[in-house]
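Record type: monomer structure entry
Structure origin: computed from sequence
Chain ID: A
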Amino acid sequence: MKIRYSKKLKQAMTLTEVVIAILIVVIGAAGLMSCFGYSFKVIQQVRENQRATQIILEKAETLRLYSWDQVNTSGFIPSTFTATYDGDATTTNYSGTVYYGDVSIVNFPYATSYQDKMKALNLTLHWTSLGITRNRSLTTYIAKDGIQNYVY
C-alpha cells in the first residue's frame, strides 16, 4: 500500500507565514527580556532593603552596649550616621547605595512611674534608589537596669 502525500504538503512556506512566525518569536523574546529586567530590579530592591535592616540592627545592637550614663550624656551618641551598601567602601567616591541614618533617644512615652529609668530609641534610615527615596525605621526601648527587671 502506498501512501500518497498531497502536493500542498510539499510546497514551501509563503513569505507571509515566515513574517508572522518571526513576529511571534520577537514578541515572545521581548516579553522574556522584560521579565528579566523586572526581576533584576526587584532583586536590587530586596538587597537594599536587607542591607537597610542589617544597618539598623547593627546600630541598635551597638547602642545596647552603652551604659546608662553614656546613653544619657548629651552628644555621646551621634544623631546622624552614614553607611554604604559595601561596608568597606568610602562614601566620598562610592558609586553604590549610600544610606543616611538618624538616631534619637527620647523619654519613655508610656508609663510615668518609671519614665526616668527607660528611654525610647528611634532609628531612621533613608536612601535613594532608582530615583525613589526609601525609608526604614526602628523603635526600641533602653532600660537603666536591663529589660529583665521589668519583665520578671
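Annotation 1: The chain has a mean pLDDT of 83.
Annotation 2: Strands lie at 80-84, 98-107, 118-129, 132-143.
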